[in-house]
Amino acid sequence: MMNSRQAFAMVSKLAQLFRRGRGPRRSVPTEIKLEAVLAAMTDAVVIMDRSGLFVDFNEPFARLNRFKTKDECLVALAEYPSTFEVTSSSGAIIPPEDWPIARALRGESATNVELKIFRNDTRESWVGLYNYAPIRVPDGSIVGSVLTGRDITDSRRTEESLRDLSSRLQLALTSARLGLWEWKITHNTLSWDDRMFELYGITKEKFSGDVSEWVSRLHPDDKESTIAHLYAAVRGEAIYNTQFRVIRPDGNIVYLKANGLVVRGSDGTAEKMLGVNSDITQEKLANDALHRAYSDIEAKVVERTAQLEAAKVAAENASKAKDLFLATLSHELRSPLSAILSWTQLLERGLLSPEKIQIGIRTIKESVWAQNQLIGDLLDLSRISTGKLHIDRQPIDVTDVLRAAVEAIRPNAEQRGLQIVEHIECEDVYIDADPARLKQSFWNILTNAVKFTPSGGTITVCLRCADTLDGHRAVIMFKDTGKGIKAEFIPHLFERFSQDDPSSIRVHGGMGLGLALVKSLVELQDGQISAESPGEGQGATFTLSFPLLTATRQSTMQDNVHTMCAPFANGHELQNLKILLVEDGDRTRVALAQLLAAQGAAVQAEASAKEALETFTTFRPDIIVSDIAMPQEDGHSLLRKIRALGPASGG
User: Fold this and answer.
1) Model confidence over 249-271: pLDDT tens digits?
2) What is the pTM (predicted TM-score) of this model?
3) What is the H or E stretch that residue 532 is in?
4) Distance from C-alpha of 333 to C-alpha of 53, rounded to nearest angstrom
5) C-alpha closest to that of 188 among 266, 272, 277, 276
6) 529-547 b/e (C-beta count within 10 Å ≥ 16 → b)
7) What average pLDDT does this structure show over 98-121?
């Protein structure tokens, strides 16, 4: 069968023998039989004379242009533009004067011109491949033109589908990170895509394509079985689906999974093989690890069972501890409240003597202080648990803080008939800590010593500097002659709500929070704490240590302290300071305002963040004291808005 170019050449040659002017159609020489040739061709053929009339065309031409028969075809080029629209392969519309058969009248010729044709009346479209050339007489003048064409719509759609399929296949291979390979069995050569070179760790330039080179990269222990699987598939005995290891040039070993399909000829002979490789190294290593883990499971079952049993016991103990905690908390809250309520009622009646009134006021103050201490400890532990406790670390003289804590507890100790002995072996002992939190820690330990030491006992406080494995440290020791600690309880001494003897709660009071809080506070300041006791009735010793600061930092700290304390040297810390107090609780707001005013401050008290913001711009305070949790808008939001005002507005 002739291709379109060969058919066009024959028709062009026959057309050269066809002579016609503007008059009636001339006869074709009988020896040529042009009509017979046109009828026999499968390509569409049309011959046009110089005037634009179609001298002849065949049935394929009618079908190509979506006419049912030759009789329906238009016979002049001028009639076609109203019915047909022609565009190039790029989509540009081609005017009628540049249609191929018209260009041929100007002496142009071309082959394999792809055009898209659209019929305006039937709304049909197709893609055609056209050849065109002029028809010349012996003197070289052009008397007409010839055009051949064929419908390639289906082939173009097939090509597009193949391209789409190829793109999808490439996308699938890329997404799955698969390497594509082809083995031409008859030539014994391999073709790889880029991913295959990545898998094997080599470049295209270093790969000859010979199968032996692939075999040389197989792991010695896998080579025989891999080749056996391959040739079993070639013989049709099995599907090629296997796993093997390859050794890359850098020495790394990777696990690959291979799948392949044998392509056979019409006689059943294996011609080539197509397949993919994928890297399963991570999967293989994970499976190996899983097997190793599985082998350890049985050994761990007994251990885990014991752990679960211990957890069950711990949960039961925790439940008991919770009940005990709630009962203790109820008692610790109710006792001071009862005292406050009782003395308040007595004071309201006005029947007490001045001495009794002083006793009542002192009792109320002590009860409020106890309540405040308990709630403060609970809040501090909560803040520590959530990481929200603020530690204002600064260089401080631990000697001053220690002495302040001792002096604060001394009246209570003397009232109980206890003696406090100080052994300060070094002065100017500087550490990096929060003075308030450090004093809180010392005070808690001293409070416990006072609580658990019987009358006539001694509490010894020591401070020394020592070289330890952790460097130069300040070491503070608190030793008492009290009830001591059971050896089995010492590991639990710093746990929350831990009590050596629950019955002692009723004797000494307390929630078992103090030492847990002390341990957290000490560790938050890079300190260490430990406890020891020879046994019950033999007292206890608590030892704290903190890293010492260098001499340079000590000197800098002293200068800063003198500068910071200068404004308060007269003892009137709040004198002439303007303080904006924000507190939604009416009673608390009034009490705090009175307290601050008593210290010499000018106080403006507001009940909400909104009111405080309005007051701020006119009052322009030196200090803002604000509650955090308030209705509608909290203290954090208020402070953010004040900062946003900018320096000019006092922010």
Assistant:
1) 999 999 999 999 999 988 889 99
2) 0.41
3) strand 528-532
4) 116
5) 272
6) bebebeeeeebbbbebbbb
7) 93
